[in-house]
Amino acid sequence: MSIKGKYLFASILLFILFLFSCQLEPYSKGKEAYEFYCASCHMKDGSGLAALIPPIAGADYYAQNQEKVACIIINGLQDSIVVNGKKYGGKMDPIALTPIQITNIMNYMNQSWGNNIPVKSIESVKKDLEKCPQ
Ligand code: HEC
Questions:
Q1: Which one of 61, 81, 100, 121 has the lowest number of neighbouring Cβ atoms within 10 Å?
Q2: What are φ and ψ of residue 110, in 5° steps?
Q3: How high does pLDDT run on average in the chain?
Q4: Residue 124 is part of which domain span?
Q5: What pTM, to 2 d.p., does this model score?
Q6: How many CA within 13 A on the CB side of residue 80?
Q7: Residue range 40-54: average pLDDT?
Q8: d(CA 67, CA 82)
Q9: Rounded distance from Cα 15 to ligand 1 centre (Å)
């Protein structure tokens, strides 16, 4: 093979590796943002913290209230909620994120830690945000 041919071959190989690495971690943006904004409370693995912070991994409340999650992030939550049969009455402060960041984080959470919840589009997150309780 000529030098040029070898370079071409190496470039194609690198490109395939690059595509493959994106496949391995399709929600890397959401993971990064989750770990920055949410993991301090909900933990890196979404398991929550004892009786204080509800889980997101395997959480019935999370799976059943998908259209409320964007508002929970933007407005915070101070309510008495039941997650997987356990009562939580803590307080989550509002976190100012854009619809794109919310979509990335939700899609990471929906497809991580054993969660298998359909992914959200930015459009549906924007619609959810329009319906936030004032
Ligand atoms: C300072 C701690 C803290 C941070 C940071 C935090 N949360 Fe929460 N979160 C809580 C608490 C406490 C509750 C329960 C509030 C209640 O009982 O009303 C909660 C509730 C929730 C719920 C509803 C309950 C459930 O488990 O399904 C979701 C969804 C949620 N948080 C998502 C997030 C996301 C996404 C982020 C990051 C963008 C985040 N939270 C950041 C403390 C936090």
A1: 121
A2: -65, -25
A3: 94
A4: 27-130
A5: 0.88
A6: 1
A7: 96
A8: 17
A9: 39
